[in-house]
TrEMBL record:
<dbReference type="InterPro" id="IPR016102">
    <property type="entry name" value="Succinyl-CoA_synth-like"/>
</dbReference>
<dbReference type="InterPro" id="IPR005811">
    <property type="entry name" value="SUCC_ACL_C"/>
</dbReference>
<dbReference type="InterPro" id="IPR017440">
    <property type="entry name" value="Cit_synth/succinyl-CoA_lig_AS"/>
</dbReference>
<dbReference type="Pfam" id="PF02629">
    <property type="entry name" value="CoA_binding"/>
</dbReference>
<keyword id="KW-0547">Nucleotide-binding</keyword>
<keyword id="KW-0436">Ligase</keyword>
<dbReference type="InterPro" id="IPR003781">
    <property type="entry name" value="CoA-bd"/>
</dbReference>
<feature type="binding site">
    <location>
        <begin position="100"/>
        <end position="102"/>
    </location>
    <ligand>
        <name>CoA</name>
    </ligand>
</feature>
<feature type="domain" description="CoA-binding">
    <location>
        <begin position="4"/>
        <end position="104"/>
    </location>
</feature>
<dbReference type="GO" id="GO:0004775">
    <property type="term" value="F:succinate-CoA ligase (ADP-forming) activity"/>
</dbReference>
<feature type="binding site">
    <location>
        <position position="43"/>
    </location>
    <ligand>
        <name>CoA</name>
    </ligand>
</feature>
<keyword id="KW-0816">Tricarboxylic acid cycle</keyword>
<comment type="similarity">
    <text>Belongs to the succinate/malate CoA ligase alpha subunit family.</text>
</comment>
<feature type="binding site">
    <location>
        <position position="173"/>
    </location>
    <ligand>
        <name>substrate</name>
    </ligand>
</feature>
<comment type="pathway">
    <text>Carbohydrate metabolism; tricarboxylic acid cycle; succinate from succinyl-CoA (ligase route): step 1/1.</text>
</comment>
<feature type="binding site">
    <location>
        <begin position="17"/>
        <end position="20"/>
    </location>
    <ligand>
        <name>CoA</name>
    </ligand>
</feature>
<feature type="active site" description="Tele-phosphohistidine intermediate">
    <location>
        <position position="259"/>
    </location>
</feature>
Length: 302
Protein backbone atom coordinates (compact mmCIF):
# COMPACT_ATOMS: atom_id res chain seq x y z
CA UNK A 1 0.00 0.00 0.00
CA UNK A 2 1.11 3.59 -0.46
CA UNK A 3 -0.11 7.17 -0.39
CA UNK A 4 -0.38 9.35 -3.51
CA UNK A 5 2.11 7.26 -5.58
CA UNK A 6 2.41 3.55 -6.43
CA UNK A 7 3.69 1.09 -9.01
CA UNK A 8 0.77 1.89 -11.33
CA UNK A 9 1.52 5.64 -11.41
CA UNK A 10 2.36 6.92 -14.89
CA UNK A 11 4.79 9.81 -14.57
CA UNK A 12 5.72 12.63 -16.92
CA UNK A 13 8.51 15.17 -16.34
CA UNK A 14 8.06 18.85 -17.13
CA UNK A 15 11.54 20.16 -17.85
CA UNK A 16 12.91 16.69 -18.59
CA UNK A 17 15.27 17.90 -21.29
CA UNK A 18 17.11 20.37 -19.03
CA UNK A 19 20.25 19.32 -17.17
CA UNK A 20 18.52 18.79 -13.81
CA UNK A 21 15.51 17.11 -15.39
CA UNK A 22 17.71 14.74 -17.38
CA UNK A 23 19.77 13.78 -14.33
CA UNK A 24 16.81 13.00 -12.12
CA UNK A 25 14.71 11.34 -14.82
CA UNK A 26 17.54 8.85 -15.23
CA UNK A 27 17.64 8.26 -11.46
CA UNK A 28 13.86 7.89 -11.22
CA UNK A 29 13.88 5.35 -14.04
CA UNK A 30 16.60 3.47 -12.17
CA UNK A 31 14.29 3.28 -9.16
CA UNK A 32 11.59 1.62 -11.25
CA UNK A 33 9.41 4.69 -11.82
CA UNK A 34 7.14 4.31 -14.85
CA UNK A 35 8.14 7.50 -16.70
CA UNK A 36 6.04 7.70 -19.85
CA UNK A 37 7.07 11.09 -21.22
CA UNK A 38 8.61 14.52 -20.89
CA UNK A 39 7.17 17.93 -21.72
CA UNK A 40 8.97 20.64 -23.69
CA UNK A 41 7.03 22.56 -26.40
CA UNK A 42 10.25 23.32 -28.31
CA UNK A 43 11.27 19.64 -28.50
CA UNK A 44 7.86 18.02 -29.03
CA UNK A 45 8.02 14.95 -31.24
CA UNK A 46 11.55 14.01 -30.22
CA UNK A 47 12.62 11.47 -27.63
CA UNK A 48 15.44 11.05 -25.11
CA UNK A 49 17.42 7.83 -24.67
CA UNK A 50 18.07 6.97 -21.03
CA UNK A 51 20.41 3.96 -21.17
CA UNK A 52 18.21 2.18 -23.68
CA UNK A 53 14.86 3.48 -22.46
CA UNK A 54 13.36 5.86 -25.03
CA UNK A 55 11.17 8.52 -23.39
CA UNK A 56 9.07 10.61 -25.80
CA UNK A 57 8.81 14.40 -25.47
CA UNK A 58 5.39 16.04 -25.82
CA UNK A 59 4.38 19.61 -26.46
CA UNK A 60 2.07 19.93 -23.47
CA UNK A 61 0.89 18.16 -20.33
CA UNK A 62 -2.53 17.64 -21.92
CA UNK A 63 -0.98 15.93 -24.96
CA UNK A 64 1.22 13.75 -22.76
CA UNK A 65 -1.80 12.67 -20.71
CA UNK A 66 -3.85 11.94 -23.83
CA UNK A 67 -1.09 9.87 -25.45
CA UNK A 68 0.19 8.01 -22.37
CA UNK A 69 -2.49 8.07 -19.67
CA UNK A 70 -0.10 9.91 -17.33
CA UNK A 71 -1.46 10.74 -13.89
CA UNK A 72 1.62 12.30 -12.22
CA UNK A 73 3.87 15.15 -13.31
CA UNK A 74 7.22 16.08 -11.77
CA UNK A 75 8.17 19.71 -12.37
CA UNK A 76 11.83 20.64 -12.90
CA UNK A 77 11.07 23.89 -14.74
CA UNK A 78 13.23 26.94 -13.79
CA UNK A 79 11.69 29.33 -11.23
CA UNK A 80 10.71 32.05 -13.71
CA UNK A 81 8.61 29.60 -15.74
CA UNK A 82 7.38 27.32 -12.95
CA UNK A 83 4.07 29.14 -12.35
CA UNK A 84 3.07 28.69 -15.99
CA UNK A 85 4.13 25.04 -15.92
CA UNK A 86 2.08 24.26 -12.81
CA UNK A 87 -0.99 26.11 -14.15
CA UNK A 88 -0.66 24.09 -17.36
CA UNK A 89 -0.69 20.89 -15.30
CA UNK A 90 -3.73 22.08 -13.32
CA UNK A 91 -5.60 22.97 -16.54
CA UNK A 92 -4.86 19.48 -17.88
CA UNK A 93 -6.40 18.08 -14.65
CA UNK A 94 -3.50 15.79 -13.90
CA UNK A 95 -4.18 14.22 -10.48
CA UNK A 96 -0.74 14.86 -8.94
CA UNK A 97 1.85 17.59 -9.58
CA UNK A 98 5.17 17.31 -7.72
CA UNK A 99 6.92 20.70 -7.88
CA UNK A 100 10.63 20.23 -7.18
CA UNK A 101 11.76 23.69 -8.30
CA UNK A 102 13.47 25.83 -5.66
CA UNK A 103 13.38 29.62 -5.63
CA UNK A 104 9.87 30.17 -7.00
CA UNK A 105 8.61 33.62 -5.97
CA UNK A 106 6.11 33.36 -3.11
CA UNK A 107 3.65 35.41 -5.16
CA UNK A 108 3.85 32.83 -7.96
CA UNK A 109 3.37 29.91 -5.57
CA UNK A 110 0.40 31.66 -3.97
CA UNK A 111 -1.08 32.27 -7.41
CA UNK A 112 -0.85 28.70 -8.68
CA UNK A 113 -2.03 27.27 -5.35
CA UNK A 114 -5.06 29.61 -5.35
CA UNK A 115 -5.72 28.58 -8.95
CA UNK A 116 -5.47 24.90 -8.05
CA UNK A 117 -7.95 25.38 -5.20
CA UNK A 118 -10.35 27.22 -7.50
CA UNK A 119 -10.24 24.17 -9.77
CA UNK A 120 -11.01 21.75 -6.94
CA UNK A 121 -7.48 20.83 -5.85
CA UNK A 122 -7.18 17.60 -3.88
CA UNK A 123 -6.22 18.42 -0.31
CA UNK A 124 -7.60 15.48 1.64
CA UNK A 125 -6.85 11.77 1.47
CA UNK A 126 -10.31 11.29 0.00
CA UNK A 127 -9.16 13.38 -2.93
CA UNK A 128 -11.08 15.72 -5.20
CA UNK A 129 -11.52 16.38 -8.87
CA UNK A 130 -8.54 18.71 -9.16
CA UNK A 131 -4.77 18.46 -8.97
CA UNK A 132 -2.93 17.63 -5.75
CA UNK A 133 0.22 19.75 -5.51
CA UNK A 134 3.26 18.61 -3.54
CA UNK A 135 5.84 21.34 -3.00
CA UNK A 136 7.24 23.61 -4.29
CA UNK A 137 10.90 23.50 -3.20
CA UNK A 138 10.61 19.91 -2.07
CA UNK A 139 12.31 16.55 -2.69
CA UNK A 140 9.07 14.93 -3.86
CA UNK A 141 7.81 11.58 -2.70
CA UNK A 142 8.79 7.94 -2.88
CA UNK A 143 7.05 4.64 -2.33
CA UNK A 144 10.09 2.34 -1.99
CA UNK A 145 10.11 -0.56 -4.39
CA UNK A 146 7.29 0.94 -6.43
CA UNK A 147 7.84 4.50 -7.65
CA UNK A 148 9.91 7.62 -7.02
CA UNK A 149 8.69 11.07 -8.12
CA UNK A 150 11.37 13.63 -7.35
CA UNK A 151 14.93 13.71 -6.06
CA UNK A 152 14.83 11.40 -3.01
CA UNK A 153 17.64 8.84 -3.27
CA UNK A 154 16.02 5.51 -4.04
CA UNK A 155 18.72 3.31 -2.52
CA UNK A 156 18.74 4.49 1.12
CA UNK A 157 15.78 2.48 2.36
CA UNK A 158 13.39 -0.34 1.54
CA UNK A 159 9.64 -1.00 1.61
CA UNK A 160 8.27 -1.11 5.14
CA UNK A 161 5.55 0.09 7.47
CA UNK A 162 6.60 3.63 8.44
CA UNK A 163 5.01 6.69 6.86
CA UNK A 164 7.18 9.81 6.71
CA UNK A 165 6.14 13.42 6.09
CA UNK A 166 8.78 16.14 6.25
CA UNK A 167 9.33 19.83 5.52
CA UNK A 168 13.05 19.24 5.01
CA UNK A 169 14.60 17.33 2.13
CA UNK A 170 17.90 16.44 3.79
CA UNK A 171 16.16 15.39 7.01
CA UNK A 172 13.85 13.20 4.91
CA UNK A 173 16.91 11.38 3.60
CA UNK A 174 18.51 11.11 7.02
CA UNK A 175 15.38 9.68 8.65
CA UNK A 176 14.93 7.16 5.83
CA UNK A 177 18.53 6.07 6.27
CA UNK A 178 18.28 5.90 10.08
CA UNK A 179 15.24 3.60 9.81
CA UNK A 180 16.35 1.68 6.70
CA UNK A 181 16.22 -1.64 8.54
CA UNK A 182 12.46 -1.19 9.06
CA UNK A 183 11.56 0.57 5.82
CA UNK A 184 8.80 2.91 4.64
CA UNK A 185 5.34 2.66 3.11
CA UNK A 186 5.78 6.13 1.58
CA UNK A 187 7.91 9.18 2.32
CA UNK A 188 6.63 12.64 1.36
CA UNK A 189 8.73 15.80 1.34
CA UNK A 190 6.22 18.67 1.43
CA UNK A 191 8.73 21.54 1.24
CA UNK A 192 9.42 24.44 3.58
CA UNK A 193 8.31 27.48 1.61
CA UNK A 194 5.69 29.84 3.10
CA UNK A 195 3.10 28.63 0.56
CA UNK A 196 2.89 24.90 -0.19
CA UNK A 197 0.25 22.56 -1.52
CA UNK A 198 0.02 19.29 0.41
CA UNK A 199 0.52 19.83 4.15
CA UNK A 200 1.52 17.74 7.16
CA UNK A 201 -2.19 17.32 7.89
CA UNK A 202 -2.97 16.01 4.38
CA UNK A 203 -0.21 13.41 4.69
CA UNK A 204 -1.22 12.47 8.24
CA UNK A 205 -4.77 11.86 7.03
CA UNK A 206 -3.54 9.67 4.19
CA UNK A 207 -1.19 7.65 6.42
CA UNK A 208 -3.94 7.18 9.02
CA UNK A 209 -6.13 5.69 6.27
CA UNK A 210 -3.36 3.47 4.84
CA UNK A 211 -3.67 -0.07 6.29
CA UNK A 212 0.01 -0.79 5.63
CA UNK A 213 1.36 2.17 7.62
CA UNK A 214 1.84 1.26 11.30
CA UNK A 215 3.68 4.38 12.51
CA UNK A 216 4.08 7.94 11.26
CA UNK A 217 7.22 10.07 11.50
CA UNK A 218 6.62 13.80 11.12
CA UNK A 219 9.50 16.23 10.62
CA UNK A 220 8.90 19.95 11.03
CA UNK A 221 11.01 23.04 11.42
CA UNK A 222 10.86 26.54 12.86
CA UNK A 223 8.56 29.15 11.34
CA UNK A 224 4.82 29.38 10.84
CA UNK A 225 2.27 27.30 12.71
CA UNK A 226 1.96 24.20 10.52
CA UNK A 227 3.26 21.87 13.23
CA UNK A 228 0.90 23.30 15.85
CA UNK A 229 -2.04 22.79 13.50
CA UNK A 230 -0.82 19.27 12.77
CA UNK A 231 -0.68 18.61 16.52
CA UNK A 232 -4.33 19.63 16.86
CA UNK A 233 -5.22 17.35 13.95
CA UNK A 234 -3.30 14.41 15.45
CA UNK A 235 -5.04 14.84 18.79
CA UNK A 236 -8.47 14.77 17.17
CA UNK A 237 -8.04 12.33 14.29
CA UNK A 238 -4.92 10.11 14.34
CA UNK A 239 -4.98 6.77 16.16
CA UNK A 240 -1.60 5.49 14.96
CA UNK A 241 1.57 6.33 16.91
CA UNK A 242 3.32 9.48 15.69
CA UNK A 243 6.97 10.37 16.33
CA UNK A 244 8.21 13.87 15.61
CA UNK A 245 11.29 16.01 15.16
CA UNK A 246 11.45 19.79 14.87
CA UNK A 247 14.55 21.35 13.33
CA UNK A 248 15.87 24.69 14.53
CA UNK A 249 16.19 24.71 18.32
CA UNK A 250 19.30 26.90 18.13
CA UNK A 251 18.07 29.27 15.40
CA UNK A 252 18.38 33.00 16.23
CA UNK A 253 15.20 35.08 16.29
CA UNK A 254 14.41 37.06 13.14
CA UNK A 255 16.86 35.25 10.86
CA UNK A 256 15.67 33.07 8.01
CA UNK A 257 17.24 29.63 8.30
CA UNK A 258 17.33 27.46 5.19
CA UNK A 259 13.81 27.41 3.83
CA UNK A 260 12.03 30.66 3.10
CA UNK A 261 9.38 29.79 5.67
CA UNK A 262 11.83 28.97 8.46
CA UNK A 263 11.93 32.18 10.43
CA UNK A 264 11.09 32.80 14.09
CA UNK A 265 9.19 35.99 14.95
CA UNK A 266 9.02 36.67 18.69
CA UNK A 267 7.55 33.65 20.45
CA UNK A 268 5.80 32.46 17.28
CA UNK A 269 7.17 29.52 15.34
CA UNK A 270 9.90 28.40 17.73
CA UNK A 271 11.04 24.80 17.85
CA UNK A 272 10.24 24.61 21.57
CA UNK A 273 6.65 25.79 21.04
CA UNK A 274 6.16 23.23 18.30
CA UNK A 275 7.70 20.46 20.41
CA UNK A 276 5.37 21.28 23.29
CA UNK A 277 2.30 21.34 21.04
CA UNK A 278 3.18 17.95 19.56
CA UNK A 279 3.91 16.38 22.93
CA UNK A 280 0.58 17.68 24.24
CA UNK A 281 -1.04 15.72 21.39
CA UNK A 282 0.72 12.52 22.46
CA UNK A 283 3.54 12.69 19.91
CA UNK A 284 6.96 11.54 21.09
CA UNK A 285 9.46 14.20 19.96
CA UNK A 286 13.19 13.54 19.64
CA UNK A 287 15.88 16.15 20.24
CA UNK A 288 17.88 14.92 17.23
CA UNK A 289 17.02 12.91 14.12
CA UNK A 290 18.87 9.91 15.57
CA UNK A 291 16.93 10.08 18.83
CA UNK A 292 13.70 10.40 16.84
CA UNK A 293 14.57 7.25 14.90
CA UNK A 294 15.25 5.43 18.18
CA UNK A 295 11.83 6.46 19.50
CA UNK A 296 10.19 5.11 16.33
CA UNK A 297 12.14 1.85 16.56
CA UNK A 298 11.19 1.39 20.22
CA UNK A 299 7.49 1.80 19.48
CA UNK A 300 7.52 -0.61 16.54
CA UNK A 301 9.51 -3.20 18.49
CA UNK A 302 7.00 -3.00 21.32
Amino acid sequence: MAIFLNKDSKVIVQGMTGATGMKHTKLMLGDGTNIVGGVNPRKAGTSVDFDGTEVPVFGSVAEAMEKTGANVTVVFVPPAFAKAAVIEAIDAEIPLAVVITEGIAVHDSAAFWAYAKSKGAATSAAGAAGTRIIGPNCPGLITPGQSNAGIIPGDITKPGRIGLVSKSGTLTYQMMYELRDIGFSSAVGIGGDPVIGTTHIDALEAFEADPDTDLIVMIGEIGGDAEERAADYIKANVTKPVVGYVAGFTAPEGKTMGHAGAIVSGSSGTAQAKKEALEAAGVKVGKTPTETAKLARAILNG
